[in-house]
Structures are given as C-alpha cells and as structure tokens.
Specification:
mainly beta; twelve-stranded parallel sheet; 2 helices; 40 strands
Length: about 475
C-alpha cells in the first residue's frame, strides 16, 4: 500500500516538473531544462580573431530542427540590427554545440552580438527560458603574410632561368598580384617579367635570364591583398644571388676599351666606305700619316687619335697601349678553369664558355663556330692561340653567338696575326701581338686591337661596339 502511494506521488511530481519546464523554469523532465553552458568567444571577450568560428554549447542534446538561421544570429553592433552576418550553421549532437562559420572575415575592432532565441528546444520540446544574448569585440585586422619564397632569403647559386615565387598563408585576390605588387630589381633597376598567381603562390617569370653573379631583390608590396581586401602589414622584401658566371675571369681592357681599332704602325682602309661605330681608332707609336683611307672610311660617334697629336693625346695612347698589353698577357696566361686544348679547324663546332688553347695556328673554315652561353649573359670565352688565327668567309667561318652570349665577353688572344675572312660575320675582341686584317665585306661586333703591327680594312668593312 505504501509503495503504491509513493509511485503515485512521484508520477504527480514528474508531471508538475514537465509542466514547469515547458513554462521555461529551467527544470529538465528528469533533471533540468535546456540552457547555454558556454560560448566561444565568451561574453565581453576582446581581441577576438577575425576568422573566429562562433560556438554555443548547451547542457543537453537539442532538437536540430529548432536550430536555424532564424533562431541563431550574429550581427555587427555598429550596423543596422536587421543586417545579419551570413555564414554556415551546423549542430553537433555529440557535444550539444552550435558551430557558426562566417562567410567572410569579421571586421576588425568591431563589437558583435550573438543571439540564440527561446524558440530553440531540446528533444522533449522544452525551450530556453529566454533569448540568450552575448557580445564580443574583434581584434586588429588579420593581415596576410608571406610564409615561403623560392629562392629563399639570401640564397646563392640561383639558376639563370629561375622563376621567383612567393607563397602566402591565405588565398590572395589575384587582381592584386601583378607587376605593380610583385617586383624584382637588380640594384634599383626593375627586372622585366610577367606575374601569375595560382592557389596561394605568386610567380614572377623574368623576360630574360638572370645575369650571373648578381644580387637581386624581390618585393611583395602592401598592394597585395587577400580575398577579404586585407593587405600585407608591410612590404615583404628578400634578396638572392645568381650563379657565378660561366667561364674564366675576363681580361680588363681598362682604357683601351674605348677603341674599336688600335695599332702600332699603321691603320688603313684600302677600298670602300668602311665604318667604325661608337668607338675610337688610334695609333701609337705610329703617326697620323700612317692612318690612310679615312675617308672614305668613317668613324661614327668616335674620333681618330695618333701619337703625334697635341697633348694629352700621346700620353692617353701610351696608356691605352699598355692596357692592351696587360690584357693580352692576362688572356695568354689565364688558367682557370683549366684550358681545353684545341687544334686546326673549329668550323661546325659549338663551344661552351671556357678557355680554349691552341699550340699553333687556328682556323674557322668548314662551318660556323657557335659559342653557347647556356643562358648566362655574362659567360666568358678566352681563345689562346699561339700563332696565326684565320677565319674563312663565305658559306662558313662565322662566329655565332647563342644562349645569351655577348660579343663583349669573347676574347681572341693571337700570338702572331689574325685574318678575318671575306664576308665573315665575327664576334669578339681580337688581341693580336702583331697585325690584324679584315678581308672584303667582313664585319665584326667587337674590337681589332694590335700591339705591334697594323690593322688593315680591305674593303667595305664594319666594326660595331660589342
């Protein structure tokens, strides 16, 4: 009898509790009604990250159907209360937690209000007693950062054809990644190139190969912004150095570099209007009377100097001849990298940068000789020729440059005399101990520099500054 009365009392209490819970008195059907245990960020929190995921955790499992974009809201308190923050709303039944991911970064230094309406209910249909409202304040603007570069900071030995890249910690706005925000410089001079962007990586592709043994500086400016228009906090700057140049150390021409022709005893133009462009011609110790055929030969953007000109020309020519001799001896004695021995006809061959040594005469006859810089615009060639050097013009015998090679970096040290054949297209500076002859219609991008003998232009020759 007592047991029956006790069960009846418990049933009555249970009904009362259920009724009171539905009236939002925070009493659960068999314990307590639903309520918010915690939020992240917490109420009145400050310095909240702009990419914060908002969470609300309840004391018990809730009815997912009651958790909607209507029953949960987040808004910027500084804006119109009707304007809600859009985002993705999910509910984790295991942890009783709402997760709200804003569709864009939160504004910086802004106060936000989160709200869970009393329409949210548990599985028994028990509702929150009242709307749950809390606030928090965001921190400073979240600036994107560069987290990786290739080449890295202070990298050395960078390949000449290197594409320079910078990787960010977040996706960037592709419209802000361009040649105005990704800049590569050699000293203070911008390097020409194109900029592309993929994933989180910006790439700078130089229009031409990097120069060897050169320090470059790359910059990502604050004009680069992420997808939410937040810029880098500061310009990101790093430097790197390209590979050493290929081949030997070049001879230093010093003051003789101004001359397209220099000779010891005579300079002649036998026929036709030969041309020397952007360089001087000079003779020492020979006199001006030993310079013949000018005109019809002409010097364009240059002058003619002789040992019997008024001061200070004689001293200038003596110094130039000394610098020529020094350059000749340097080229003759160069040993690093180790010279490769060559002999006879070099026509039809392709040679990489380096030192090439001939113990007798050397020819370019059966085809063109190609000098391949392999992408290094500073690559150097030194040809050490013990006796005469001759190119045979016509179908072959030209000196061709490829792979970025430049005529100013090619040196022909000739132990006797050099002859540039008819219609030969020649590249490089000839440093001859005795004399140099350019046959009919031969052209050169380079210099014809003779220490002791004469330089002869046979007919309608052209020498251009390398």
């Amino acid at each position: 009898m007592k047991t029956k009365k006790l069960l009846t009392i418990l049933a009555i209490v249970s009904v009362v509790l259920i009724a009171s819970c539905k009236k939002d008195t925070f009493v659960e059907t068999v314990g307590v009604c639903p309520y918010v245990v915690s939020t992240n960020p917490t109420n009145t929190a400050t310095g909240v990250p702009l990419d914060q995921i908002i969470t609300v955790t309840f004391n018990e499992k809730m009815n997912p159907a009651t958790i909607t974009q209507t029953s949960f809201s987040l808004q910027d308190a500084t804006k119109n209360s009707a304007s809600k923050i859009s985002g993705t709303l999910t509910y984790d039944e295991t942890t009783f937690t709402i997760h709200f991911v804003p569709s864009s970064l939160l504004a910086y230094n802004a106060i936000y209000t989160g709200k869970v309406l009393s329409s949210v209910k548990d599985l028994m249909g028990n509702a929150l007693q009242s709307d749950y409202v809390w606030t928090f304040t965001t921190g400073a603007m979240l600036a994107p950062v560069v987290i990786y570069t290739d080449p890295g900071t202070d990298a050395t030995g960078v390949e000449f054809n290197k594409i320079i890249t910078a990787t960010f910690n977040v996706p960037m706005d592709p419209a802000t990644i361009n040649t105005g925000t990704f800049i590569v410089r050699k000293g203070t001079t911008p390097v020409a190139g194109t900029v592309s962007y993929s994933g989180t990586t910006a790439s700078f592709t130089p229009t031409s190969n990097l120069l060897s043994c050169t320090v470059y500086t790359a910059t990502i400016t604050t004009g680069a912004k992420n997808l939410f228009s937040n810029p880098l906090a500061n310009d990101y700057v790093w430097g790197f150095t390209s590979k050493p140049f290929l081949g030997p150390q070049p001879p230093d021409l010093k003051s003789v570099i101004r001359f397209g022709i220099i000779a010891g005893v005579g300079i002649s133009n036998n026929a036709g209007q030969s041309e020397i462009h952007d360089m001087d011609i000079g003779i020492s110790p020979g006199f001006r009377s030993s310079i013949t055929g000018f005109p019809p030969a002409i010097v364009i953007n240059g002058a003619i100097y002789a040992a019997d000109d008024a001061d200070p020309v004689p001293a200038m020519l003596i110094q130039a001849k000394q610098d020529l001799t020094d350059a000749y001896l340097f080229a003759k004695g160069a040993t690093t990298p180790a010279p490769a021995t060559i002999a006879g006809d070099q026509g039809g061959k392709t040679l990489a940068p380096g030192i090439y040594k001939s113990t007798s005469t050397l020819l370019i006859q059966s085809g063109d000789l190609t000098l391949d810089a392999q992408g290094d615009a500073n690559a150097v060639w030194i040809f050490q020729i013990a006796s005469d050097f001759t190119t045979i013009g016509g179908a072959g015998g030209n000196v061709i440059l490829s792979g970025g090679a430049q005529a100013k970096n090619v040196f022909w040290q000739v132990g006797s005399s050099a002859t540039i054949g008819d219609y030969t297209s020649f590249n490089g500076t000839v440093l001859a101990l005795t004399s140099i002859t350019m046959n009919s219609h031969a052209t050169a991008t380079g210099r014809m520099l003779a220490i002791n003998g004469a330089v002869v232009l046979t007919s309608t020759n052209k020498i251009s500054k390398p």
